[in-house]
Amino acid sequence: MNKGMSVTELVNPNSVDIDEMSSLEIASLMIEEDQVIYGALQQALGDIAFAIDLMVKQWEVGGRIFVAGAGTSGRIGVLDAAELGPTFSIDESRWIGLIAGGYEAMWKPLETLEDDEKIICELLEQHDFNEKDTFLGLTASGLTPFVISGIRYAKGQGGTTIAISCNPDTLASELSDCGIEVIVGPEVIKGSTRLKAGTAQKMVVNILSTATMVRVGKVYQNQMVDMQLLNKKLIKRAEHTLMEIADLSELEASSLLKACDLDLKVAIFTAITNAETAHARHCIKEENGHLKQAIQHYFSSNQ
What we know:
Blueprint: H1 23-34, H2 36-43, H3 45-60, E1 65-69, H4 71-88, E2 95-99, H5 119-126, E3 134-138, H6 145-156, E4 160-165, H7 171-175, E5 178-181, H8 196-215, E6 219-220, E7 223-224, H9 232-246, H10 250-259, H11 264-273, H12 277-286, H13 291-301
Parallel strand pairs: 1-2, 1-3, 3-4, 4-5
Antiparallel strand pairs: 6-7
Helix pairs in contact: 2-8, 3-8, 4-8, 5-6, 9-10, 9-11, 10-11, 11-12, 11-13, 12-13
């Protein structure tokens, strides 16, 4: 494989007869092709872990995450950013999705805007992007001007830069503090990077955002404990979480959650330690929201 080769634009020899295949054969081929994604992710694992460490470091000093892309890549980034608020109770101003073309581009193909190198800089400037922030650029090709320009601007402001691409030795990786290259090979339809490349990028973004939230204390064991309890379904989920973790009945969990003002972390801490609600809040705050650390510290201090 040549340095800088755009493998996402090559012809896939396995699918040259796809226009003659049956529905079953097409589906079978696409599933088989998708299997390469996992091997590609394994190859990029070290860079993925490094990116998580960078993001956690920036987050812990109050930094924000800007995830940006054009077309499919941009939609993937915006989708992930939009779902983090209700899942982890983070303010929407701290994880920001930017897509070339803005809101309209989420619903309509505005492909020409991926070549706009000025608008991403203007957007980042409007948000006062600074050295505490992280720019996460998604570009399957590794060459998208919208993303490349964003990386350059972010670096110029002293921020941290991470690129996710699906080609080897890309410009996006070269310019970034961390370049994640998930090489999934040619698509079954030449150049249609909404397929394997899009799936791979979504998986990486999911891993980065989830792992970062775990590292900064948004998860206890493997449970969402910092979610916004905005409806009956989420309140019921929180009650079941409390029942599982603290071995409470449904009635006990419901009562305790209400007594803790629907703060699941406080309710868990209170149930496990028998501490007063106010003290629970204090202990959790002292550990910067890390519930398990707060509980462990409480017991070690009261032995």
